């Protein structure tokens, strides 16, 4: 791990390393003040945290939602889900990731980070225009969720058809990347180009099939996960303030790595997640994936599901393997590319696309025309 670059004069970056930030560490009720540089150094040492500078009140009403949790049925749309899964294509994953990792960095305070986000937004729009039937396009919204930094988050919604169910189902990934030294290249193929492409290919296959959920289903690509879950916390704060009824959220962060010498499996994270939704997630893996699940733990503020969990919304996280076998060698370096090792597997990424399809259909429902 290299030394963190400390100069502030880097073209294309809007990053004040001396800026004070409010940071919440594990076990802390009261946040502490760190400079941006101290925050970067802490992350490079493997310390996870929420940067709560803009969202200090998030979580104060969590108990109200926890007391009114929904229940989750066993998967029961098997043939429908499998028919959509059959249309998933590895070539699409490869094409998206080739472009998405070509930006020097997707750091949320960099110009190329903004450019990569705008490219992803255009790609989502193009796929929607190409694959969604015209009648379905009228029910799809694609928007940027702006932040105080350069890079926006992206929110895509497929409106629910039910007049009686205001529930929302969310599938998320983060679109930013970082190097431990933030001004250095960060292609971010696994972290989190892999999760980004997993849910994007699921979205493409769903709209190609004319997916009309009974509940609204949304796909989120968050900015600034690497800055302390900044983007997702801002989104959750907005949803909380508007009283959005989020019944389930599933995060996809690092979905590509199959460590040499291990068997292929997916990691079901059991800490800082909803236990009932986690059990449902296991059933989806058993029903629709070609590989088994294994329980694992990821720790405090591990990815964007933690922002939803903090606010009391049911959320789950599925990662590429048991945590001890994830890609720690290359993430947050300039070598996080899809061609650095045969341990990077597009076939494995596709398993998570299958999971995303199952999650969307089983929890969103599907109003089929007669």
List key phrases describing it.
370 residues, alpha/beta, Aminopeptidase, 8-stranded mixed β-sheet, 3-stranded antiparallel β-sheet, 11 strands, globular, disordered N terminus, hydrolase, zinc
In short:
With 370 residues, the protein is of the alpha/beta class. The chain is built from 11 helices and 11 strands.
Beta content comes to: 15-25%
Cα-based radius of gyration, to the nearest Å: 19 Å
CATH topology: Aminopeptidase
Global outline? globular
Secondary-structure element series: EEHEHHHHHEEEHEHEEHEHEH
Description:
It is a single chain. The protein is α/β, with parallel strands linked by helices and 370 residues long. The protein contains eleven helices and eleven strands. The strands form two sheets. Strands 4-5-7-6-8-11-9-10 form an eight-stranded mixed sheet, with helices on both faces. The chain is globular and about 55 Å long. Residues 1-7 have low confidence and may be disordered. It comes from Dichomitus squalens. Pfam families: Peptidase_M28. Residues 154-350 form the Peptidase M28 domain.
